[in-house]
Amino acid sequence: MRQIAAKVPCGLFTVLRTLKRFSETNFIADRGQSARPRKTSLREDRLLHRISLSNRKLNSSQILKQWTLTSNVSVYPRTVRGRLLEIGLRGCKAHPKPLLTEFQRNRRLTWAREHSLWTIKDREKVIFSDEGQFCISGNQSSAYVRRRTHEEFSSQCLKPTVKYPTKVMVWGCMSSHGVGRLHIVSGTVKAMDYIEIL
User: Fold this and answer.
1) Which terms under GO biological process does the entry name (predicted)?
2) What does the pLDDT read at residue 152?
């Protein structure tokens, strides 16, 4: 053994371990080490996925609280995040979108389909106007949701916005000839205010 160690070269104990391994397994490669066992079963993982998908706005600690109430798991929030990442659910900032009814969504879709074939000449005849609103009151903090990559604009992953909190409205318009004047209006704009601005 000392001669083998001198020729390789390596330590005597390395030679001893290698020869012992070869006599036991007929291989000289290291034995594959077993991975750390999972702390949760497949059934518990499926339950976790259902809890997360039932309310996309729950954070990992809130999900863990519900999970432990319905199963005997004992894990950390970090494990919850890891399990959700395995199925593609990651924490993301929710996009704020107007809170629309089904009727309003259908009307918008109908309008978009009716005007989808407009040409440039058709658009030159129209002045497009829109408003931007800066909220003074109300909860405007970011909301985080758990979603997959393709669910960015799914209704469950959006942050609904309310139509009339206290805010300052900025009104502007544009056409094929350029942009119009910018108007700043305080409070809610009523029908007569729209006419006056235009």
Assistant:
1) DNA integration; DNA transposition
2) 80
